[in-house]
Write a structure and sequence with these properties.
It contains 9 helices and 20 strands. The protein is α+β, with helices and mostly antiparallel strands and 412 residues long. A hairpin with a 2-residue loop joins strand 15 and strand 16. It is elongated, with a radius of gyration of 26 Å.
Length: 412
């Protein structure tokens, strides 16, 4: 009886670890289920059956039972994950540990935020926190270690132009943090080819109703100094900058964040990165409304009605808020040490934003030209204008090759 209970407990843990690590390849539920069952049930059952067939008829020789084989196999899976790749295992437990509990809850008609699912998530999060190095790193997903997105090109007016950007509707992004009651229509004004729309900006000192240029070619939203001061946002020469290419040449712009943006009835309730740009403002227009705001919606222009139409998108973009956070994040002094197939990467992660960043997902991408491997990690919290130590550790199919450390996801 005790062996059966121990085997069941180890099976649950081993199944969770195996399926969570398999999520690095695919997050399809059938793949997670199949990988967990094959490794944690099918493989030990086959091995136990094979050993029994070899020892059939032997005297005084123990024949392992399927239950004991399952217990031993899953114990090795759990220990292997904890010792060989603690950071990756911790991240996967935290991110996917309760997926099977949530799946069962869904099948029986329970909500995803039910007490059982929430309790399972907290339990696996606690287990993940017990693993060595879990506080420094631990999971999958990543932008280049030294953000290599490069300065966005720009056409004119001091904003940024994305390659190939242009007509609406905008590409689907599924960014979260948006309160959107179905479809929202915002009336705009035409001034030649320019589209001017009313926007409500939110900052530490309150809100401001302004007019902005609707610009699907601008990567970042821009504001002039007077508007930033109205919102209670102070910029200084020591703040982070980004290089822009305009019709008048190259310029560097200070970047900062505001608390949110409202378009009609659509509210973005998360920080939004903006660039300080005086040339982007003219008369009552205070700046450009760029893609880092507009990509959160499915956007079309109804010229006949003189309205911008915003439609809701799904939430949960794989990169989180990385488009806004990317210019603020820098990785310093990445170093890697190989011990056979085990790669340990250390670095310092700097957040130059005026607010904290959470769940920064990192990847050390290893390549020898013929094949590529990845070691995953996650930093849970990076304080505003702070620096934290980063450690990633895991097995790579590519051994001894050079690696590139990347940031692939981040949230405010």
């Amino acid at each position: 009886m005790l062996l059966a209970l121990a085997a069941l407990l180890l099976l649950l843990l081993g199944f969770t670890v195996t399926s969570c690590l398999a999520a690095a390849v695919s997050e399809n539920r059938w793949w997670l289920l199949a990988s967990g069952l094959i490794v944690c049930v099918g493989l030990p059952a086959l091995v136990a059956s094979w050993i029994r067939s070899l020892r059939k008829g032997g005297q005084g020789r123990r024949r392992p039972s399927t239950v004991s084989a399952i217990a031993v196999t899953n114990a090795l899976v759990v220990l292997g994950g904890a010792l060989l790749a603690p950071a990756t295992t911790a991240d996967r437990l935290r991110r996917h540990g309760a997926w099977w509990v949530g799946s069962i809850a869904h099948l029986v008609g329970k909500k995803k935020d039910s007490p059982v699912v929430n309790g399972a998530e907290r339990t696996f999060g606690w287990l993940a926190g017990l693993l060595p190095g879990a506080g420094d790193a631990g999971g999958p997903d990543a932008v280049a270690a030294h953000p290599d997105a490069g300065p966005p090109a720009d056409g004119g007016g001091g904003g940024w132009q994305d390659r190939g950007a242009g007509a609406a509707p905008l590409p689907d992004s599924g960014i979260g943090g948006v309160e959107l009651p179905g479809e929202v229509r915002v009336r705009f004004q035409r001034r030649g080819a320019a589209v001017i729309i009313p926007v409500t900006l939110h900052g530490p000192s309150g809100s401001a109703e302004v007019q902005m240029l609707f610009d699907t070619g601008a990567s970042l939203t821009t504001l002039n100094g007077a508007t930033l001061r109205r919102l209670g946002v102070i910029v200084s020469p020591g703040d982070p900058t980004i290089e822009t290419h305009t019709a008048n040449g190259t310029a560097r712009r200070i970047i900062t964040t505001i608390d949110g943006v409202t378009l009609g009835g659509a509210r973005i309730d998360r920080p939004v990165t903006v660039a300080y740009c005086e040339p982007c403002a003219k008369d009552e227009v205070v700046g450009l409304l760029g893609l880092n705001v507009l990509r959160r919606f499915a956007v079309t222009l109804d010229d006949e009605a003189g309205q911008v139409v915003l439609r809701s998108r799904r939430t949960g973009h794989p990169q989180g808020e990385l488009a806004d956070i990317r210019p603020f994040v820098e990785i310093h002094d990445p170093r890697g040490v190989w011990r056979g197939p085990l790669l340990t990467v250390t670095a310092r992660l700097e957040n130059r934003a005026p607010r904290g960043v959470r769940y920064v997902k990192l990847a050390a991408v290893v390549s020898d030209g013929a094949q590529e491997g990845r070691v995953w990690g996650e930093v849970r919290d990076v304080p505003a204008r702070g620096t934290v130590a980063v450690k990633l550790e895991g097995l790579s199919p590519v051994k001894g090759a050079r690696f590139e450390l990347r940031v692939e996801r981040a949230d405010w």
